[in-house]
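stage 2 :: seqdesign
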């Protein structure tokens, strides 16, 4: 009698959403607030409007400063409001 074992393969890597935005607050420990700007047409008049959405992102090393341009990636829920992770600092902000 031939006994074969089935090997479970891991699911294909999940493509995570990434966004680029500016750090507007770093007052919390290991958390930054990133403002992401996007363009959206007005539903009735079709004029393009600039909108901003703020995301709370995890910054494990507390390296981000206000004004930095960062890339964030969607991840599992880390707290009540945090679902994003700082992947890289694209551009350093100006020193004040």
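stage 2 :: out
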């Amino acid at each position: 009698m031939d006994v074969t074992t089935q090997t479970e393969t891991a699911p294909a890597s999940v493509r995570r959403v990434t966004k680029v935005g500016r750090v507007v607050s770093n007052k919390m420990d290991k958390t930054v607030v990133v403002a992401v700007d996007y363009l959206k047409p007005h539903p009735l008049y079709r004029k393009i409007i600039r909108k901003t959405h703020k995301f709370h992102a995890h910054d494990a090393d507390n390296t981000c400063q206000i004004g930095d341009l960062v890339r964030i990636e969607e991840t599992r829920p880390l707290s009540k409001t945090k679902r994003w992770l700082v992947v890289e600092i694209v551009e350093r902000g100006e020193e004040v």
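stage 3 :: structure notes
- The chain has a mean pLDDT of 90.
- The two ends are 75 Å apart (CA to CA).
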